[in-house]
Design a protein that fits this description.
By secondary structure, the chain is an all-alpha fold. The chain has 9 helices and no strands. The longest helix is centred in the last third of the chain and has 31 residues.
Amino acid sequence: MFTREQALGLLKKYNQEVFHIRHGLTVEGVMRYFARQNEEDPDYWGLVGLLHDVDFERWPEQHCVKAPELLAEIDAPEEFVHAVCSHGYGICVDIKPESQMEKLLFASDELTGLIGAAALMRPSHSAQDMELKSLKKKFKDSRFAAGCSREVIRQGAEMLGWDLDQLLSETLEAYRATEGDVEKELAQVADGAEE
């Protein structure tokens, strides 16, 4: 299995925009959080989260179609490639999320974007002081962060057998738990780019 350093290197090779790197790191942290909740391997789940959008910045029209070719560069196993690509189910591929990990990735990917956008609107620029009712209000406002598909989020909750409040609440908690680490690592990534 490849290392996290190899995974991060692949992400940065095909993603230069800080927005995309932040999203990869955020979903990695959220997936690590969910892995611990499910008594699964946080490293493996985290790597799936880190690389889930590896192809999106350069090939948005081939999202989840180009990913297997890129993941082959680090010899990603077939089940890993399936997990990464399954988050595009019904959007850009017909690879259905099967495992709990894949369902959580599908459900939380769009939602982390919504939480991040909502956090930026807060005086603190953080999710640390965000309450569930505030997130629900942003979720209901279809004009806010319009690129974050509410339908995909709802479909993800349904896949998991969760109600929407549970998905919003648990993903917000996961986001909060990883937010500080993401910002620290982003600062290191930025410092490395300047050298």
